[in-house]
# Entry
Amino acid sequence: VHPEVNNMKVLISVDIHRGGRALVEAAVKWLAARTDVETIDLVYVFELAPAGGAGPGEPYIWHELMPQWESLYAKARSELDALLERVPEERRGNALAPLGTANSAVAEMTHRYDLVMVGTQQHKGLSRFWLGSHAERLVRSSAAPVMVLPLSGAE
# Structure
């Protein structure tokens, strides 16, 4: 983090399904000692059409799945809003839930922030190969500095 930045804007990229609460708590704890943090936003990217799944090019399937996706999106928004409540009110920013793929959607918004925080489950071996690492890809593509927090043993 650049020491000359005042009124720092922080983005925490969370996974509401794995380690989101632990990440927000760890990030808020780390940021508590900093006097230059103005706002903390949270982002969870809702992937509307998983890789290999039905997408807008398949209208019949898309039409059938849309009500289910809308319900899941509403639930995800609610969970993200609950995580945002863990951020101290004086620093609380917005809960952002864009549609897209996690890596590209978060990377595209990083230019508006002074620091991006992301958690890692620290997968190794084959699980890392299959699951990949959002944190690793974000470090490579972010326009802002990225702090990666380990979340081993997180919920």
Confidence is low (pLDDT under 50) at residues 126-131. Strands lie at 8-13, 37-43, 92-96, 115-120, 146-150. The CA atoms of residues 42 and 95 lie 5 Å apart. The first helix runs from residue 20 to 32.
